[in-house]
Every structure is written in structure tokens, then in C-alpha cells.
Amino acid sequence: MRRQRRRAVIMLAGLMNAFLGTNIGYSAGIIHLGLLEKHKKSPNVVFWAGALFSSLLCLAGPISSVAVNALSCRSTIFLGSFLSFVGFMVSSFVSSIEIVVFCYGIVAGLGQSMIYSGTVLATGFHFHDNPSVATGVVVAGAGMGVAVFPMFTEFLIETYGIDGTFLLLSAVSLQVVVFNMCIETHELENNRKETSMTFKMKVELIFQELRKIFSMGAYLQFCISIFCWSTSVNTSVLLLPQYYVSTGSSHTEAAILMSLYGITGCFSRILTGLAASDPRVDGKLLYMGSYIILGLSTFFLPLIGNYFPGKVFYSLMLGIYSSNVWSLLTPITIEIVGIQQMPTAFGMELLIGGIGFLIGPIIGGFLYVLAGIFEMLMILTMTKSESFQNRNNMEKTVEVEEKLISNNVIEVKQLHD
What we know:
Blueprint: H1 2-22, H2 28-38, H3 43-59, H4 61-70, H5 73-93, H6 97-126, H7 132-143, H8 145-174, H9 176-180, H10 187-192, H11 199-214, H12 217-246, H13 251-276, H14 283-299, H15 301-304, H16 308-323, H17 325-337, H18 342-371, H19 374-378, H20 394-416
Helix pairs in contact: 1-6, 1-7, 1-8, 2-3, 2-8, 3-6, 3-18, 4-5, 4-6, 4-18, 5-6, 5-8, 6-7, 7-13, 7-17, 12-13, 12-18, 13-16, 13-17, 14-16, 14-17
Transmembrane segments: 12-33, 45-68, 75-93, 99-121, 133-152, 164-183, 218-244, 256-276, 288-308, 314-338, 350-374
Keywords: Membrane, Transmembrane, Transmembrane helix
Protein name: Monocarboxylate transporter 12
């Protein structure tokens, strides 16, 4: 009973860490407007500040994994909170946009990544026997910020300006330290470390783990699927408000529709974690099935997207079936590579997802310029890779994916013609 209470405290502390330490990224657009107001002569440089801050949550995954391997999950969260605090605080006192790009975009962005990775990995260690529910609760904390932090940040900017906002956000980031005190270093983390190892030996060990995990066909194909969904889903989410407005909705209606996406995504992460915790339910089946349903919903969006009820339906489907993947990454990763290689594998998954988040909108923008219609962008959502239950069905799954991609290429050509 005592162990269960301790794990419950760790899970709730992880939820608060994710809520306070990783949700500021949802306010990047609001902060961007505040920076533009202050630095009107440098709009291109201001863009890099928000882009780096948002992307580093995933792109800095390998760096966060190195910190976890070298230190511990708890120490990594402390370090991330300190970096976020310093990045935001310095940004509030400087007048140079270049320094803001470095402090806010890179330093604070790296801190956010360390908080997220350390929190999720700590949850994975403490709930390694059944991580689905705990991971779902923790990542739900990261999803709650969709409805809270943009409005909170807008209030701060209107009341205190962008400099005062940075200063107060630094205080918010520092609150992670309070909840991180409740997270213990698990014995599995201690077993992974050898105090006699030099830094060079630790680096060599990390590269050995990378070679080992990427030699696993299931993990390699799992990473390919992560790249596919991160590329396509981020494109859809980024351009969806513009699509809603272009089909007759007001800006207020578009904001409401995107709020529905965020709220349903939060509940989806918890419910998916509960479902995956059932030993009779295969997490990989949930992972694959979610994107099959989302792909079909996106395929029919041009038919229902001109009507407000259809837009509500699609926003709900997008929130339910695109957000739940964050609850499944940890249990699927543990199942494929094992608990010992989980930190390194999880860091690479975040890196691959971050690359997809970056290049997806670029590809989507190119297709929109090429074709001039939003429907072509949504076809990207159909190109979802699937992870595999074991090595015996890998070849069959690859054939299915090749057929899906081939069908998408034909569909794009038909729309272009």
C-alpha cells in the first residue's frame, strides 16, 4: 500500500511538472505577437525565437537522454527547470532580439525538453511493469495547456508587457522544482550507472545503445511511423484554423474548434492509457488503429468541412485520435527495446518527431502553393506508418504501407490534374 501511494504521488508530481514545465510552448504564438510589437524592425529574427522554442521540445530529445543517462531523471528535471528559469528571466531584461533568440529560443527551449523527457522517463521507470495509465496521466498534464496557457499568456502580455511576461514565466518554470522534490530516483536508474565509468566511456555506451536499438527492425519501423505522423498531423493542426476560416467560419469559431481539439486530446491521453493498461489490449493495435480512423476522417473532410457540424466532428476526431499516441510511446518503446535502453530510444523518438514537426508545414506549404487547395494537404494525414507486433509480421506491414503510400501518390496526381 505504501509503495502504491508513493507511486501515485510521483504520477501526480509528473502531471504538474508536465503542466507547468512544458505547456508554455502552446503560448509561442502569443509570445511571438508580443515580440513583434517590441521588435518591429526584426520580424524574421523574431520568427526564429518562437520556432526554436517550440521545436526544441522534441529536437533536443537526444540531449535530454544524454542528461538522463549521465545524471538521473530527477537531476535532469532540476536542470531543465533551471535552464527555463534563466532563459525567460534574461529575456525579460535584454533589449537585443538576438539575445532573446538565444535565451528564450534555445536555453528555455532546451529546459522544456529536459523537463518533459525527465518526467516521462521517470514515470516509465517507476511504472515499468504497467506504464500506460501513468504515462497517460502525465502527458495529459502536457495537453491541458492548450486551453490554459495561451489565455494566461495573453493576459500577462496585456497587463505587464512582453518583458513582464517573460519574468513571470520564469517564475512558473521554477515551480517545477517544488513538484520534482516528490520524484525519487528509481533503483533501475541506479542499476544502469557505473560510477567508475569516465565521460568518454559513457558516450561510447550511448553510441553502442544507438547501434543496438536501430539494429532492431521493429524499432526502426516504429521511428519511421513517428516521422510520418508527426509530419502530417502537425501540418494539419497548423493549417486547420486557416482551412476553417476559408470554408466560411469566423476566427472565433475557428478558435472554438481548435479548443475542442485540445480538450478532447487531453481526455484521450488518459483514456488511451487506461485502455492500454489492460493486458488483453495490444498498445500497438491502438497505435495503428487510431491513425487508420484519423486517416479516414481526414479523407472525408472535404465532404463535410463546409458545414459547422462537420468541422466539430473532425476537430473531435483529430483530438481523440492524434493526441493518444503520446500515451503509447513509452509502453511501446519499453516493449520493443526494454527498460534499460528506454532513455536513449525515447530521446531518438523525440528527435525524429521534432524533425517531422519542422518539415511538415514546409512540405504542406509547398503543396498548397502548388495546388492552391487545402484538401491536398490533408492527404498527408493518410500516410501513416505502423509499428509491428513482432518480427514475423514486419514484411506484411511494410507491403501494406507501400500500398498506402502508392495510393496517396495517385490521389495527389489526380487532384493536381
